[in-house]
Amino acid sequence: MNSETGPKQVLVVHGPNLNMLGLREPDTYGRTRLADIDSKLVLSGTRWGLTVQVFQSNHEGAIVDKLHSAMGTIDGLIINPAAYTHTSIAIRDALAMLSVPIIEVHLSNIHKREAFRHTSLMAAIVTGQIVGLGADGYYLALHALADILETSALLAPEDKDQKHS
Ligand code: DQA
User: What are 36-81's pLDDT values in tens digits?
Assistant: First the structure.
């Protein structure tokens, strides 16, 4: 179950080809490996009162299945749907079933790239998006979730008073 008292549960989902980060078009996506991003997310989560689970798949249905199994068990979600951002109504519909804050992350600035990357089918149903900041986007997304879920000891009390929707 998602947590009322203990650490809040955050799921991080990475879509297709992101397992190749570091090797894949490094000028566009950076040189940081996915394993390094994931381990930093898990570590940052422990500092901010969040238990972080990471998941990567190259398969649309596997991502949909993961989102189904997350229903009722997580308090927040970070997702980089990668190429499925622009094509997958199935992933959008699965996200729409979740009643938790969702941050969509893209390493590259999809709006500066080819026209087919300018549209995110997820955009209208997520809480917020972070694009173009490379791997830092994931850590900023986790910090945003800590703020929204009000878990972080690092956040100033006045910040915690602000409400997000
Ligand atoms: C991406 C952008 C997508 O257009 C692309 O298909 C990806 C990665 C990003 O993180 O910048 O695989 O989501």
Answer: 999 999 999 999 999 999 999 999 999 999 999 999 999 999 999 9
CA 110/CA 113 separation, integer angstroms: 5
Complete DSSP assignment for 73-139: T-SEEEEE-GGGGGT-HHHHHHHHT--S-EEEEESS-GGGS-GGGS--TTGGGSSEEEESSTTHHHH
* Euclidean distance between CA atoms 71 and 68, whole angstroms: 5
Q: What residues are in contact with ligand 1 under a 6 Å CB criterion?
A: 17, 80, 82-83, 85, 106-108, 110, 117
Total number of domains in the chain = 1
Q: Which of 68, 84, 86, 106 is catalytic?
A: 106
Active site residue 29: yes
CATH code, domain with 13: 3.40.50.9100
Active site residue 139: no
Task: Please give the radius of gyration of the chain, using alpha carbons only, rounded to the nearest integer.
Answer: 15
Upper half-sphere CA count for residue 31 (Cβ side, 13 Å): 0
Q: Which residues of the chain have pLDDT under 50?
A: 163, 165
Domain limits at 28? 8-163
Provide the pLDDT for residue 6: 83
